[in-house]
Design goal:
Blueprint lengths: L6 H17 L2 H10 L5 H9 L18 H13 L6 H11 L6 H8 L5 E5 L6 E4 L4 E12 L6 E6 L2 E6 H4 L14 E15 L1 H36 L1 E2 L2 E2 L4 H30 L4 H27 L10 H13 L4 H17 L6
Parallel strand pairs: 1-4
Antiparallel strand pairs: 2-3, 3-6, 4-5, 5-6, 7-8
């Protein structure tokens, strides 16, 4: 059995890395931060032109019809480059809108990148109060923080029992909030009798939550992998007491532990992506497992990266802080490790009670 990416998927990964090396390298990311723009429009246009937004969209809806393995390959590279573009929410919103012919115009605009969407998720049943009946309802509550809502054209609202679509152009976009992660624009989404359209029920909500966990896991994997590269290179280059610090046993152990964590993240995330793509029974549990491991492991990798770099790692001039700050949000987005441990325990208990194989 082949557990690696296919030749085509490797080619996609290589092309994605080349594109982001050119459009989202450290200099380009810092130039974007200095501009104060909500996201890098040049980068976004390049991603859309390459079909990134369409990668997991069915061909019937105007997409490429590939799948979530290919999407995770791209998301990993986005995390590796701390790319300032709302790619994950765009993919998730398109998945929620797939098959809804009434929203074909919005889907088309999201696929070609001329419009953007945000996703507001909550695992709490009481997060939103719904007024009304049928397809059109009114929502009241406060969700977030979420990425890209301050400039998005639509928001997909996900609560445990339903998925809704809110037209942000009509109802008004929320204001951006100060955030530690300066590579993303984060906002709270206030809902006060806000008109919305129901897109699906509990099954669709569970799917969105699991895909959100998978997407954030992929970005954490990419960022952690890059921090491992930065740390090991620094350990080779930094001379102390006449020798590279990488020759010290304590530094070797740090780097070895980082490698174990990153490879564990890769195995869990890629398996969950494959399971989601083929519709493997229980793939949602695989996505929850990936988020548990990636949320916890990325904390260890970021901490070790700081330890290896020492004082230089704390400075604005070094790129390390961009990854650490970005990981802080991704570790919590679509549920933290504790939330998904609880989800795993519940899912496994239900599977055992139903007499299903959980191995």
């Amino acid at each position: 059995m082949d557990f690696d990416l296919s030749v085509d998927q490797r080619a996609l990964q290589d092309e994605a890395r080349r594109l982001l090396d050119d459009c989202s390298g450290p200099d380009e990311v810092r130039a974007h931060l200095a501009s104060g723009a909500p996201y890098d429009t040049r980068l976004w246009a390049a991603m859309a032109a390459q079909g990134w937004t369409a990668v997991a969209v069915p061909e019937a809806d105007g997409g490429l019809g590939l799948g979530w393995v290919e999407a995770v390959v791209l998301l990993e590279e986005v995390g590796r480059h701390t790319s300032p573009a709302p790619y994950a929410p765009q993919l998730l919103a398109l998945d929620a809108l797939a098959g809804h012919g009434a929203h074909a115009g919005l889907v088309s605009s999201l696929v070609d990148g001329s419009a953007t969407a945000a996703v507001a998720w909550s695992g709490r049943p009481d997060a939103v109060t719904v007024t009304g009946d049928g397809g059109s309802v009114a929502l009241t509550g406060r969700l977030g923080p979420l990425e890209g809502a301050a400039v998005a054209d639509a928001a997909v609202v996900v609560v445990p029992d339903a998925v809704y679509l809110v037209d942000l152009v009509a109802t008004g976009r929320p204001r951006p909030e100060p955030a530690m992660d300066v590579t993303r624009t984060l906002s709270w989404l206030p809902l006060d009798g806000t008109p919305a359209v129901r897109l699906g029920g509990p099954a669709e909500a569970a799917r969105m939550g699991a895909l959100g966990a998978l997407a954030t896991s992929a970005e954490l994997l990419g960022g952690s992998g890059r921090v491992l590269e930065l740390a090991t290179q620094y350990a080779k280059d930094r001379i102390q007491f006449g020798v590279p610090i990488g020759s010290f046993q304590a530094v070797k152990h740090r780097c070895a532990d980082m490698l174990v964590d990153v490879e564990g993240m890769r195995s869990a995330t890629w398996y969950a992506a494959w399971a989601a793509s083929v519709g493997e029974p229980g793939w949602e549990l695989a996505a929850a497992t990936a988020k548990v491991w990636c949320a916890d492991a990325s904390k260890r990798v970021m901490a070790s990266g700081l330890q290896v770099h020492g004082g230089i790692g704390f400075t604005w001039e070094h790129d390390l802080h961009l990854f650490i700050k970005r990981a802080q949000f991704s570790q919590l987005d679509f549920g933290d490790a504790a939330f998904h441990r609880s989800a795993l325990a519940t899912g496994l208990r239900d599977a055992v009670l139903a007499g299903n194989d959980v191995m």
